[in-house]
Structure prediction request, 90 residues.
Amino acid sequence: MNRPATRTSSRSAASSYLAALASLGEPPYRSADAALPYGAKDQRGVSIHRDGLIQKGLIWAPRRGQLDFTVSPFAEYLRDNHTVPSFEEQ
Prediction:
């Protein structure tokens, strides 16, 4: 069945998006900048992951075009423990 593999790929992409955000340094993060560490051409390439993470309450948008983690130390944890794979690797 393709469904479980799709969920796993989706989770991996979401995790990679979180790691990409954290790799940008200090918040707030520009939405467009978060797509670049992935290898996505622009923010449209990652919008589904961004929207899903906002719905899950892991990130939020303090202003249009900006993102931040809902739990401040989470970015530091991600920087210390996760690399940023590109979309081509997924």
The radius of gyration is 12 Å. The first helix runs from residue 2 to 22. Residues 2-82 form a domain with the Arc Repressor Mutant, subunit A fold (CATH 1.10.10). The helical segments are 2-22, 31-35, 47-56, 73-81.
